[in-house]
Amino acid sequence: MQATTVPGPSKAAFTETKYLITLVFVTSLFMFWGIAITMGDVLNKHFQHVLSLTKTQSAFVQFAIFGAYFVMGIPAGLFMKRFGYKNGVLLGLSLFALGSFLFVPAAAAASFTYFGIALFILGCGISTLETVAHPFVASLGDQRTSDQRINFAQAFNALGAIIGPAIGSYFLLRNNTAGSTDLTSVKTLYIVIGSVIASIAILFSFVKVPALTDPHAVVADPDAANVDTAPGKTLFEHKHFIWAVIAQFFNVAAQGGTWAFFINYGHEKMGFSDATAGNYMILFMGLMLAGRFAGTFLMRIIAPHSLLAIFAACNIVMCLIIAQSFGWPSFIALLMLNFFFSIMFPTIFSLGLKNLGSHTQQASSFISMGVVGGAVFPFLMGMAAEHDVASAYYLPIICYTVIFLFGAKFYKVK
Length: 414
Hints:
globular; 16 helices; disordered N terminus; mainly alpha; 414 residues; Growth Hormone, Chain: A
């Protein structure tokens, strides 16, 4: 995956004109799965009401979505390698739409098990999109600016993460009443989502993707292309890739737990109504959007790995403040957690793909599978939150410590 090479690193372009239309469409996908994932956090709280679930039980929402990443990661990578990026995107969008439409029979049956199946299929679609979209965006220009492109695209993922809670709070939490078991709003909302995603798939099928250069082709400037600097090594002998998978596991583990119980924290520690806490989640996701744009800019003057380590260290401090239940200072720290979290997913992904050449697509599958951390961690935080939701925020410190080590030391390509 390589674009036209340039003579010096200071002149590496963000992308090229021929890639612009493709870049716009692929970047839009980041927004759509951002909506879907954060909608799951609103569903978590909504299902606690209408299906009478405990916090631990409702964490199955995150388990179904993120668990799909573990199942679908390798098949999505193999499909992408065999049929190309565009068909990989179309497969992901099709599964996304199918999972959304399956909310209709799930709501009719009022079955959390059926909802879990629908969420799993939807998660398979999101997993496929993530597996394809990251190397796809990385390939649409010079490798030296791939961190900037992926962070830019992920900024629109953050925009989707703002839209998701806004929609969910308005349609699902606003009219919550004690003892209500009405799932009509859930059914209607996901019919609309499924219809929009199906329409995007149809539109994308007409987009002509420019030819991309073979990632392990010989080029004049190896630094500008995704060339395997150690072609004799197998994928798993690239240590920076292994550490990227580990870091991504803990990164999404922290994300899954933090987002799943944000509304609970606002309700239980700040005394907000569920709808008010849901509205604060919009600000929470807005700070992630701000962090992604700030991160894209800062990477022009600070090495991506160094910025990753700095932001991880800041989040360790934020978690310590959150766990103390200091009122507004702790809630502000909870909001800022998402600002510093912002660059982690795309930066870990990009650093893990550096100089892997022909291994790049397979590596993307395994880094996407690392997202399964988001399926595991909400259960652990849920069990802790049953006793005290603030104390549950000690657990992500483990995750941010691993990310700090990756950014400070283990990112290096050898």
